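ok, trying the design again with the full structure, not the truncated one.
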């Protein structure tokens, strides 16, 4: 018997919105893990980025990265010792390319 989420994910439009949200969630987790590794608070990150603690809080709460500029996400990544790469992938090859990329990053 399928759960409610699985039933809803059968709809391609719902699946697409879910996948997009999940990608942003994964990005937020990477940033939060990097913050934890450095032992930094939102205030420490804000100072390093040159913005307010409120902006950092907004960006990292409940999908806030969706509204953050690529410039600010790039700055956040940089001060945390990460590098942001924006890539455009063919929709036809997206699943294949992303699965390979995830395997490489997990190794």
């Amino acid at each position: 018997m399928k759960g409610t989420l699985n039933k809803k994910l059968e709809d391609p439009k719902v699946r697409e919105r879910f996948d997009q949200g999940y990608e942003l969630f994964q990005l937020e987790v990477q940033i939060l893990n990097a913050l934890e590794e450095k032992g930094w608070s939102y205030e420490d990150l804000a100072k390093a980025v040159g913005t307010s603690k409120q902006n950092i809080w907004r960006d990292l709460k409940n999908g806030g990265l969706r509204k953050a500029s690529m410039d600010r996400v790039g700055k956040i990544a940089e001060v945390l010792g990460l590098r942001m790469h924006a890539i455009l992938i063919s929709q036809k090859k997206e699943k294949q390319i992303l699965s390979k990329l995830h395997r490489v990053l997990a190794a």
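Keeping the full-length input from now on. The mean pLDDT is 86.
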